[in-house]
Amino acid sequence: MKLISRTRRVVLATAGILSTLAMAVPVDAADDPTPIVFVGDSITELCNSNFESFRGDALLALSAEDYQVDAVGSRNTEDCYLADNEHEGKAGDTTADVLLRLPGGLASIAEVPEVAFVLLGTNDVQDDVPVATSIANLEAIMVELRAVNPTIHVVLAQIPPYPGKAAQTDQLNAEIALLATAGPSPVTIADFNTGIDASHLFTDLIHLNSTGAALLGDRAKDAIVATGRVSQPEPEAPTSVQGSVGIYSVSVTWEP
Fold first, then answer.
1. What are the backbone dihedrals phi and psi of residue 50, each rounded to the nearest 5 degrees, phi first?
2. Measured between alpha carbons, how far is 134 from 88 in angstroms, rounded to an integer?
3. Distance between CA atoms of 141 and 42, rounded to whole angstroms?
4. Which of 9, 81, 13, 93 shows the shortest CA–CA distance to 48?
């Protein structure tokens, strides 16, 4: 049971002196975690000491600040260090691949996600998929997400730098930014590109090392908090209060 602090006044009359003590009254409050689905490719899926994931660092950062979230999805990463390890990331996937498999994955999730964090496009750039095609697929992915929850808040992440394909990466990220105005449910853009260099990446210059995962995990956490869909529990209210009335010391205990 979680408690929300409300104020009740207790009036005490002692030795002809009237005094009022304010005390906290506990009441039941539901602090249900917000279901969030991470959708992506290997950068989302991988979660171990070799290829670390921003997803893991984001969830740990949210937990450290007492945000109540529940990662949901049809997939689990083997050997991941996270206890909350459900997601919709799959290594090698392009936007077209995710569009094909996502409806089935979402249909198998018991919880309805309130937030979707989508990081896709790296494999499209690798495979020279036209930017227009990638954007059309991302728009279709958002349609699938909204079919599950018409008011879902979608966080779209711009992709990290891709070695040797800066122009195509920049063009895709510019078009992703424009999707923030699309659709009936809210959209937030997360910048996963600015300030990312080889020091944040594994030797393949694509996947994240621990430094990169920590940096992008923090950016993901900020973007998720910015949706307004995640909450922190109310502080537990005390069940007793002490004070003084005149020359007397008074202790009052509230029985919930």
1. -85, -50
2. 18
3. 17
4. 81
List Cα–Cα distances, 124 to 159, 162, 209, in angstroms.
Answer: 11, 11, 22
Element (H, E) at 210: helix 210-226
Amino acid, single-letter form, for residue 12: L
**Looking at 14-23, 125-134, 239-248, which range is the least confident one?**
14-23
Side-chain half-sphere CA neighbours of 198 within 13 A: 4
pLDDT at 204: 85
Average pLDDT over residues 216-230: 95
Q: What share of the chain is helix, strand, coil (3-state, %, to 5)?
A: 35, 30, 40
On whether the CB atoms of residues 179 and 156 are closer than 8 A, the answer is yes
pLDDT classification of 18: cutoffs 50, 70, 90: very low
Instruction: Judge contact between 72 and 113, C-beta under 8 A.
Output: yes
In sequence order, the β-bridge partners of residue 117 are 38, 155
Instruction: Classify 10 as helix, strand or coil.
Output: strand
Report whether pLDDT(181) > 70.
Answer: no
Going by the DSSP 8-state scheme, the letter that residue 199 receives in this structure is G
In this predicted structure, the answer to whether residue 8 has a pLDDT above a threshold of 60 is no
Q: What DSSP designation does 53 have?
A: -
How confident is the model over 70-83, as a mean pLDDT?
81
